Amino acid sequence: MRDRLARVLIAATMGLTLPVAVTAPAVASPTAHATVRAPELVPLMGLTNLSLTLTQAGDNWTVKVTATETFTQSELGQRFADAANVFERDTGEPFGGDDDHLAFTFEEGFDPTSTQETITFTWQMTSDHLDTEDGSERIYGEVKLRNVTTGGGPIFARTPITTIDP
């Protein structure tokens, strides 16, 4: 019991879900079998349908990251915060190292009013800002969502990579 309590407290602190075992009572008949269902996970907030749009007008670019944030009925009325980043992918490149961080937003709090909400983050950038190295640039966006009410850790999701020549 103490081990179970410790796992529940750790999961609550980290904002995780635990499997909930659902069992049927055993039947006394020698020909009947008890049925035990597999553990079910309680779904929580999520990020889906991520997209990155880059629109060029001369030397200026509009960069948009869009995502659908999903919530359970029980999460409606709770406080959430989201933020976004834009990166240029360098992993695997010669002398690459870490990806280049091009733009970000600060976390902004909100209270969802429906189980699905679409959010769009927009930045204005120049070609010089996007041009981090010789050749093409591989750009992607990342969205972060966290439940402020429960204090759990954030979830992250990334857009597919878009290649451009600024």
Could you describe the 3D structure shown?
With 166 residues, the protein is mainly beta. The protein has two domains: 1-42, no CATH class; 46-164, Immunoglobulin-like, CATH 2.60.40.10. The chain has two helices and nine strands; from the N terminus they run αββββββαβββ. It has helices at residues 2-14, 127-130, and strands at residues 46-57, 60-70, 80-88, 100-104, 108-110, 116-126, 137-147, 155-158, 162-164. Strands 3, 4, 5, 7, 8 and 9 form a six-stranded antiparallel beta sheet that branches. Strands 1-2-6 form a three-stranded antiparallel beta sheet. The protein starts with a helix and ends with a strand. The relative contact order is 0.23.
SSE layout:
Elements: H1 2-14, E1 46-57, E2 60-70, E3 80-88, E4 100-104, E5 108-110, E6 116-126, H2 127-130, E7 137-147, E8 155-158, E9 162-164
H-E string: HEEEEEEHEEE
Strand fraction equals 35-45%
Structure class: mainly beta
Quantity of strands, as a count: 9
Shape-level CATH architecture of the largest domain: Sandwich
What is the name of the CATH superfamily of the largest domain? Immunoglobulins
Please tag this protein with its features.
166 residues, mainly beta, Immunoglobulin-like, 2 domains, six-stranded antiparallel sheet, three-stranded antiparallel sheet, 2 helices
What's a concise summary of this model?
By secondary structure, the protein is mainly beta. It contains two helices and nine strands; from the N terminus they run H-E-E-E-E-E-E-H-E-E-E. A hairpin with a 7-residue loop joins strand 7 and strand 8.
